[in-house]
């Protein structure tokens, strides 16, 4: 395994650590944003079953071990996870979001460099992941706004 292969998986660990910190700080909001990553991954699995694109490592040498046949290339799951994580983190914490965006681009790029994905696989993965997380962030913001706009009822003590 090359450092690029290990690095791609290490970036996913960085996302987990960022989410863990945000969950401690923001609790439910961070948990729900993280759930968006799971939704994005599930959507990407459905797309893979529909598209069924072979990986470039089936016809050309690669730096990483080529996944088993039936593990389709489009879209890149690593890129979906990276894109959705980066968008979710950015929606909660701008500074960490920029770090997450750089990590997402690095993770996606490494999948092409090691030869297990095409460029369009990782671009589609980043976009799909980011869009799903963005959509969930918008829904969470609307729900929070409705909660903030709700009238506050104050009961006075009798007696």
TrEMBL record:
Keywords: Cell membrane, Hydrolase, Membrane, Transmembrane, Transmembrane helix. Residues 28-137 form the Phosphatidic acid phosphatase type 2/haloperoxidase domain. It comes from Lentzea roselyniae. It is a multi-pass membrane protein. The chain crosses the membrane at residues 6-24, 96-116, 122-140. It is found in: Cell membrane. This is Phosphatidic acid phosphatase type 2/haloperoxidase domain-containing protein. SUPFAM superfamilies: Acid phosphatase/Vanadium-dependent haloperoxidase. Its main location: membrane. Gene3D superfamilies: Phosphatidic acid phosphatase type 2/haloperoxidase. Signal peptide: none annotated. Pfam families: PAP2. It comes from the Bacteria.
């Amino acid at each position: 395994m090359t450092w690029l292969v290990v690095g791609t998986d290490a970036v996913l660990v960085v996302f987990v650590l960022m989410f863990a910190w945000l969950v401690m700080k923001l609790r439910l909001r961070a948990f729900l944003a993280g759930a968006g990553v799971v939704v994005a991954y599930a959507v990407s699995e459905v797309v893979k079953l529909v598209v069924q694109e072979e990986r470039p490592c089936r016809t050309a040498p690669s730096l990483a071990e080529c996944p088993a046949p039936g593990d389709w290339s489009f879209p890149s799951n690593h890129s979906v996870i990276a894109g959705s994580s980066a968008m979710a983190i950015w929606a909660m914490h701008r500074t960490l979001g920029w770090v997450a965006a750089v990590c997402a681009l690095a993770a996606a790029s490494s999948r092409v460099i090691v030869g297990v994905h095409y460029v369009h696989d990782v671009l589609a993965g980043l976009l799909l992941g980011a869009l799903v997380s963005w959509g969930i962030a918008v829904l969470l913001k609307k729900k929070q706004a409705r909660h903030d706009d709700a009238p506050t009822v104050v009961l006075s003590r009798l007696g």
